[in-house]
Amino acid sequence: MGPTFYLHPKSILASRDDTVELTCGARGVPRPNITWLKDGIVFTDTSATVIQSDLNESSELIMKIISVNDRHVGYYSCLATALKTQVSSRDAILSLKGKYDDTYIHTYILY
Prior knowledge:
The chain has 1 helix and 10 strands.
């Protein structure tokens, strides 16, 4: 059974310097490995802490970003990999209040 997501990240409208958390979860056999992506590229920013919880056939990944700023704004998703199968979660948008409100609201309504 290939990986499937049961928990998708949710969009966040944050204030500058907020701490935010994004969460995703996938299950499969074997248990999938999950990676965070930002704008389609593996996210490796050192300002983010990633915690992975492994349960029987599922994995959950929580990413905490401390002191959100302009460089954190973008589309976030998770990529679950098991054997040779890869599946992506839905996108979540991280936006900052005051600067990206219009873009965030317009894109959010389209989802």
